[in-house]
Structures are given as C-alpha cells and as structure tokens.
Design brief:
- By secondary structure, the chain is α+β, with helices and mostly antiparallel strands.
- It contains two helices and seven strands.
- A hairpin with a 3-residue loop joins strand 6 and strand 7.
- It folds into two domains: about 50 residues, no CATH class; about 110 residues, 2-Layer Sandwich (Ribosomal protein S3 C-terminal domain), CATH 3.30.1140.40.
C-alpha cells in the first residue's frame, strides 16, 4: 500500500504583513492534518477549516505511529551484577578503612555513612549498566556479643542480586550489604 503525500499550505483569513513561520508549505504523509485556528488547503487548492479555537494556532497533529521499544529488558550476561566481584570490592574497602580503627560510638554513624558512599561509588565503576544500588552498612562495638541482621526484598530473581560481607577487628565489627536492582 503506497503512502499518499499531500501538500498543505497554511493561510489566514485576513490580509496584512508577513508573519514568520506562516504560509509555509509542508508535506505531510497520510491524510490531511489540522492546523488549529487556520484554514488548510490541500494540494488541489481545496479549503478545509479547522474545528479548534485560535489559541492553539500553528500546531499540527500527525497520525499516531506506534514504535517498538528500543530498550533492552534484560542485561547481557557480561553486564549482570556479580555478587562475587562486589563482595571482593566491599571486603577490600572494609579492610582498608577499618583495620586500624578503634570503636568510638560518637563517630560510628559517620563511619557507616562514609563506607556506604565508598561502596556505592565502587559499584558504579563496574560495567553493570542500568543498575541502581542500595547500600546498607552497620558498624558496632565488638565485645563478643551476638548480632543477627536480616533483610527482605521484592525483586526480579533473574536480574537483581546482592552482595554481603562482614568485617571484625578487636574493637569494631561491620556488616555491609549492596543490592543491585536492574532498571527495566
């Protein structure tokens, strides 16, 4: 089926000076489109008055064309969040930042926030495109007490994943978790 192309010329029902952008010839595929508040002429010179008010003057509406989505719904295998790689990176960060640290309850919130930021920035360096990261770090005093930490998430098991590591020295313990959530 061949596409019909028609020549449209916008004209005004009044005389006067030239208005920039008005009186231009436009080629529009398909059927005749409307310019609100204007008289339209097709390629044969037939007039067609639009039905809308003058406040929309100059707008053209084309037939709705439905296009296929251009984005990828699932990551390639090489670009999936890797728990092993992330755990290695997180362990490296915790070891470097906390090995020589002694527990101080006043600075623990700041230390936890800084560790979270470092882990999140490190996650962004990996080639995992279209992932968002949620990082949680708990820092506390190591006095040989028992600690249980749990988490629950609703996610896509095929694309989303997490990494979790622990650190302990004589006075400090830390538990860090990084969640990689794929954006569809």
């Amino acid at each position: 089926m061949a596409m019909d192309s028609r020549r449209i010329r916008r004209t005004h029902g009044h005389g006067g000076g030239h208005i920039p952008g008005h009186g231009q010839n436009l080629t529009v595929p398909g059927r005749l489109t409307k310019a609100h508040g204007h008289t339209l002429r097709d390629h044969k010179g037939n007039d067609s008055k639009s039905e809308s008010s003058d406040h929309d003057r100059g707008k053209y509406f084309h037939e709705h064309v439905r296009l296929e989505n251009t984005f990828q719904l699932n990551p390639c295998e090489d670009y999936k969040f890797s728990s092993k790689q992330m755990e290695r990176a997180m362990k490296e960060i915790l070891d470097k930042q906390l090995t020589e640290t002694d527990y101080n309850g006043k600075i623990c919130p700041t230390v936890a926030a800084n560790l979270s930021s470092l882990i999140k920035e490190r996650a962004k360096e990996f080639p995992w495109k279209r992932y968002r990261y949620v990082v949680q770090v708990v820092v506390g005093e190591n006095s040989e007490q028992a600690v249980q930490i749990g988490s629950r998430c609703i996610w896509d098991e095929k694309n989303d994943n997490f990494a979790c590591v622990t650190f302990k020295n004589k006075t400090v313990f830390a538990v860090a978790a990084c969640y990689g959530i794929y954006l569809e």
